[in-house]
Specification:
The chain is of the alpha+beta class and 707 residues long. The chain contains 26 helices and 28 strands. Helices cover 38% and strands 17% of the residues. It has a six-stranded mixed beta sheet. A hairpin with a 2-residue loop joins strand 27 and strand 28.
């Protein structure tokens, strides 16, 4: 560096040359092109310039230039909006019917054919706009229940899920981008066992992620080895029948049901089963098929900032955004790797000053996206405009931990994760208050709410503060003074929110960031995860290809290490494998406990949720596997997901060469001949070349030629 020039936090971090896979994904997914497929974005910085301008155009005329420059600076310094923003902001001339929002949840699916089909239509329009969507299906009556007026019994929720699955698959095929859906299901629904086992059938519900809504009562029943009641809202005849056991409980929809004075719905108990046997069924399915997921729904609602006006029953497809009916949320992530100064040295440090500056600017930037949301349904637009939910998170945590000389899951890395999330949260909420002063708070902040007995029961502190049933309080007071999440923040900040309100009700969540990590972040580790491996292959959907395509990639930290220590290594060289520092570990070298500890450290400061996957080896003992989920519950997580490579079940998105080499796939030819091929071998089939693993998976799962 020339004399007289000082290194400051405003200078750009060093940007490594993108590896081919990263460049390719940007070009295919995020680069704006015209109808003839001619590029409009000259390069990645051209993409940033388009996005910055589109989002700055929301500002008043005299502020547009200033914020365009600041937003562009933030993008160049690690602020990465979610894929829908990068793809669609400033692109309406070429893609007029798309949205900048990743996360949505369906309206409540009521138990009638008309409403189910209406929700299919709404979901189709949402997916067509490029948004993911989640639904709760346990609002539908169980298999075999009588359909009033039809003289027949229902086929159950799973068959209706098949309709949504087919709709999503059709829209994905037409639009070139795979649709993303989440189905949640109450642990007390009579068809819960069918839901848990649904994906054991080849090709079924493959357009869905599945998650069980787990309650505290169920976890207690498992612990105490008690029976568990399976139930569903009763009709009038069942309520009057002395032979039907009736219990009252809260329900997503009370219309047409018998309720008590607490607005709880009368439910018929269909049967009792062992809680532990149901728990073991979930665990065995998750062990074999990585699903269903595990959403601790009571914890979600207990920690929801909008506790006074929402009952959350579903999440977006990856689980990082629990949302109310027709809820929507925008996402964005900060690339932590760009804030590491002097990586791989004893002087390695994190540039907190520049990090806070990026978070502050990025918060305003994300808030502006609300104005250009492009959501297809009026109800979705009203919801996001009323509450202005944000979902800022980070990516590259695992890569950053290695670059700073820590080991993922050790004490220092847990403390670092806590600070990363804390600084993001406090900086963001402080900016939210400033934005409220400049532009006005979210509408819900000034909305009056009548205090109910249920609210007082949920928040005993309200009684101590002299608040009684029937009192009327604005949303900003109910949020600032009684949100369980905000009580950990500085008193002045909470006081400012109570008096002035905030620009949004939620600020943070951590998304999986798969393709933006691989492309715009040069394969920094996904979200909160460690790197899957430092040299591996990724299976991607390529438009026009009949199966997924295997692409070789290197981790960002390996690229960075080579740049500093061994810049002349060939792209796929393994020569430096034995020269890497000891902390260069990947996800399979990390204990499940360490995974949970990192997630818990971040969750303390994250107001929504976290998409995280705990990878366990194929030979991991089943009894130890179950302990992971108990530990996650003890640590207060809102959800938990695991992945165990099981070649008999499916081929994952991220694959290690060792797994492919050690797995044999068996193909039966038309003439009955059987051939056996290793997973990493190349096969020519139907005029194209495929890896044996990807071809086997595509044929088995029924998506061959349909991507």
């Amino acid at each position: 560096m020339p004399s007289g020039i000082k290194k400051t936090s405003s200078m750009r971090p060093k940007i490594l040359t993108l590896q081919p896979a990263s460049q390719d994904i940007w070009d295919s997914k995020y680069r704006l092109k015209d109808q003839k497929n001619n590029p409009i974005d000259k390069d990645i910085d051209g993409t940033y310039q388009r996005v910055a301008k589109a989002i700055a155009d929301v500002e008043t005329p005299k502020l547009k230039k200033e914020w365009n420059e600041k937003f562009l600076w933030a993008l160049r310094n690690g602020a990465i909006p979610a894929g829908r923003i990068v793809s669609n902001a400033g692109a309406t001339e070429h893609k007029p019917a798309t949205s900048t929002i990743n996360c949505t949840v369906s309206g409540t699916i009521k138990d009638s054919m008309v409403d189910i089909l209406e929700m299919v239509k709404e979901a189709g329009l949402t997916l067509k706009a490029g948004c993911g969507i989640g639904y709760e299906f346990s609002t539908l009556r169980p298999k075999g229940a009588l359909v009033a007026g039809a003289g027949a019994s229902t086929s159950g929720p799973l068959t209706f899920m098949d309709i949504f699955d087919a709709m999503c698959r059709t829209i994905s095929s037409a639009g070139g981008r795979r649709g993303a859906q989440m189905a949640t299901f109450d642990i007390a629904h009579p068809d819960i066992r069918d839901f848990i086992s649904a994906k054991r059938e080849d090709g079924r519900l493959r357009q869905f992620n599945l998650s069980c809504l787990i309650t505290d009562d169920f976890m207690q029943a498992v612990k105490n080895d008690q029976e568990w009641e399976l139930l569903f809202p009763a009709n009038n005849q069942e309520v009057k029948d002395p032979n039907c056991k009736i219990v009252y409980r809260s329900w997503a929809n009370t219309e047409g049901y018998v309720t008590n004075s607490h607005n709880e719905v009368a439910c018929r108990v269909y049967k009792k089963i062992s809680a532990r046997s149901l728990w073991d069924l979930i665990m065995r399915s998750t062990y074999d098929f990585a699903e269903p997921g595990f959403i601790l729904i009571d914890k979600v609602n207990e920690m929801n900032n909008n506790w006074f006006c929402e009952d959350i029953r579903a999440t977006n497809p990856c689980g990082e955004q629990p949302l109310p009916p027709h809820g929507a949320c925008l996402l964005g992530s900060v690339n932590l790797t760009l804030f590491v100064d002097d990586p791989f040295t004893e002087k390695a440090s994190f540039n907190w000053e520049r990090y806070k500056k990026v978070v502050k600017i990025f918060t305003r930037m994300m808030d502006n996206v609300v104005e250009i949301h492009g959501l297809p349904l009026p109800e979705q637009g009203e919801e996001i405009n009323h509450k202005r939910r944000h979902g800022m998170g980070f990516l590259g945590l695992g890569s950053t931990i290695i670059m700073m000389g820590m080991e993922y899951g050790d004490k220092k890395s847990v403390e670092f994760t806590d600070k990363i999330a804390k600084v993001m949260a406090i900086t963001g909420w402080e900016e939210g208050v400033e934005l409220a002063g400049e532009k006005g708070p979210a509408a819900i902040m000034d909305q009056p709410f009548t205090v109910t007995e249920a609210m007082l029961a949920a928040r005993p502190q309200m009684r101590e503060d002299g608040i009684s049933e029937g009192d009327i309080l604005p949303g900003k007071v109910l949020l600032a003074n009684y949100s369980n999440y905000l009580q950990k923040f500085p008193e002045k900040l909470r006081k400012d929110i109570a008096e002035q309100g905030c620009r949004f009700t939620h600020h943070t969540s951590i998304a999986p960031t798969g393709t933006i990590s691989l492309s715009l972040a040069n394969n920094a580790s996904n979200g909160i995860e460690p790197s899957f491996s430092h040299m591996y292959s990724r299976n991607i959907i390529r438009e026009g290809k009949k199966t997924k395509e295997k692409v070789d990639v290197l981790s960002y930290e390996l690229l960075s290490y080579r740049d500093k220590i061994n810049p002349n290594a060939s792209p796929q060289s393994e020569d430096d494998a034995n020269k890497l520092p000891d902390n260069f570990i990947d996800t399979n070298q990390i204990t499940p406990k360490a995974h949970v500890d990192i997630q818990a450290a971040a969750q303390y400061w994250i107001d929504s949720s976290i998409s995280k996957t705990i990878n366990v080896p194929t030979d991991y003992p089943f009894e130890k596997f179950k302990e992971i989920y108990h530990y996650a519950f003890q640590k207060g997580l809102k959800g938990c997901t695991t992945f165990r490579f099981n070649p008999e079940a499916f081929q994952g998105v991220l694959v290690k060469s060792d797994d492919l080499t050690s797995t044999t796939y068996r193909f039966t030819l038309d003439d009955g001949e059987i051939i056996e091929v290793k997973g990493d071998e190349t096969i020519e089939y139907d005029g194209e070349k495929h890896t044996a693993a990807n071809l086997f998976d595509a044929l088995k799962e029924g998506y061959y030629g349909k991507l």
